[in-house]
Amino acid sequence: MIQNAHVTPILPVVDLSRATGFYRDRLGLKDLGEEGGNHLLQTGAGAKIGLMEAEPGAQSSHTVLTFEVENITDEVKDLEGRGVGFLDYDTPEIKTVDHVCVMGDEKAAWFADSEGNILCLHERMIGDMGR
Question: Is the pTM for the entire model greater than 0.70?
């Protein structure tokens, strides 16, 4: 049944080699190689991401993928150390401080992959009001 299916998002990328390097080397995902015309990578938790070559402009300017993490501050520092640049916002809806936005019982930080797709780190704070 579909509600029990594993989901693999397929992200459009202009330069497959550059994008694979970003996800493998900057984010630390496992490179699974080519499968079904896409290049697959896997998180340590087993989730897969597919990369598909696409023309410039096919990349998304909204969040296409979120990584739920236990400690967003540590993750931001780790990724910055790997050369990942974070996006900062100062709007009535979203304001980041040290790249992190607190929204109710969650925190989020956004960054772009090498192709311009917007990705997010996400931390749930339920039962963790001390952070």
Answer: yes
